[in-house]
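Re: beginner question about structure tokens

> Can someone show what the tokenized structure looks like for a real chain? I only ever see the sequence side.

Sure, here's an example I had lying around. Input first:
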Amino acid sequence: MGWQSKLGRKVRGGLGVFDPLFFSINYLRNKRWVLLTVLSASIIATLSRLLIPIFIGDAVSSIQNLQYSAVEYDAILIFLASSISGGVQFIVNYGSQYISQTYSYNLRKSVFAHLVRKKFGFYEGQTSGDLLSRSTMDIEASRNFVLNTASQLIPTLFMIAFAFVLLFTINMDFAAIFTVAVPILIFIGIVFQRKQRTHWRRIRTYYGQMNEQLQENIVANRVIRGFSAEHSEQAKFTGTTGSYFDEYMTVARLRGKYNNLMPLVVSAAATGILFYGGYISIISASDVGPLVAAVNIFSMMSFPVSFLGRLIVFSENARAGISRIETVLDGHDDEDLELGDSERLKGDLEFSGVNFSRGDLQILKSVTFVIRKGEFVGLTGRTAAGKSSLINLIPRFYDPDSGKITIGGTDLKTVSLESLRKAVALVPQEITLLSGSIKENIAFGGHDTSMDRVRWASHIARISDFIESLPGGYDTMVGERGITLSGGQRQRVAIARALMTNPEILILDDATSSVDPETELEIFNNIRREAAETTVLIVTHRESALKFSDRVLKLDYGVLTAGEYSSGPDSPYGQSYEASGGE
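And the corresponding structure tokens:
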């Protein structure tokens, strides 16, 4: 029983070769008519192709029996069968491409839809290069399997079935030899599949690592050159791409070994038929036409059987890719942007006993405060005090462990994320501009994207004069991540972008650190004058910015200290500012 159990496990494992096919069905809904068309065309093309050896056998028998008029008839049938097979095969090939491209099109849309909804915690555990690999090469690997399944596997399966039927009609002994050969081929394929699986998963992992290293070296090229780290980075990339090469070569060796075994089995079966059929034909002095037909049928099986070996390669590659794609498609880490009320939030911002932690590290401890609508409030504290964590709770990039955050008395957890983030605009420490023009970056996310509105936001952010001095003006391209702009210019474009959304709450997380103090105060004055109803919360260490604020909140290792300091010359920040002579 032990060997039977082991064989059963192998067979069940071998059926996993079709896992990518079952996965793809979800992305091919409403395309049943195409699938049925390809299926029907495959039946016609395969049957027409297999009839050719039968007609050839008939022609040989006609020649053997000196029935030359029948040879012409058989020749016409061979031509017709070849023409039908070739014409219908075009439908199979085109339909297969349509199916595979439809699948990848729908899958790419689904992956992207999940990526833009993933919680921030998901990205903290992933690398951008690996995610790019999952969204491109892994999808392409699974698409190749779908393509080859539709264009090759379906015709191959029909060919095996029809070949058995035709051989059975020719000679039952020929069909018996065929029946013995097929299970051997299937067993070889299953063993081949199991030996490849681990290697393909490693290949997909190494590919993601190569993407990540390439991206890091392109984006951080100034840092790498600044520290003369070219050689070490090159060595690291060489190690990764070397591992990728080694795994591929291991698969190539396995492929060369097992792919050659399959045609060998077919050739051995064809040889057996030739010897056995030839012996019977000599003994019985019967027509050799059926023997010729049987040998030709077996010869036609060589390519389809070889394809079964390649299909296993495609399948393992696709399975490795799909297992990585599924971590993106898993909705566990997705945000539901529409869940909750869609009301427009207005009013005071209030934290009530808010606690927040990451793992075992508690970052915020029972934080409680109120910011009145229209106030300009500063938030300060030493490095790692929890300032960025606090402001990230307002647009619900993260949720607190306990406590409540409200705007106008409405608990933020009861409001849809879409409505909340329309009411809250955050300019983060690390500014990211999109590839495109300055106008496109400023207008991004805004409801009113008119040129007048863009100029209004640019004026408040004190960036309009610089933009208008450029040859291309607002149509000037900023390059990837805004690389053509200075740090201060990127920050001011980002502030203008945030103002375009007309937010109820504007959060500036050290967003003027690269701007000189004079320009910074001009920006603050413009915001206070032009957006007087907007509540502003600025995270900063600058005394000039803190003095400008109506009030100042101070965090000390996650605790809001007793000082909800007011601004002005008499405040601790004002006194410090006066003593330093300003910034």
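Each token stands for a local structural state, so reading them left to right follows the chain. DSSP finds 21 helices and ten strands in the chain.
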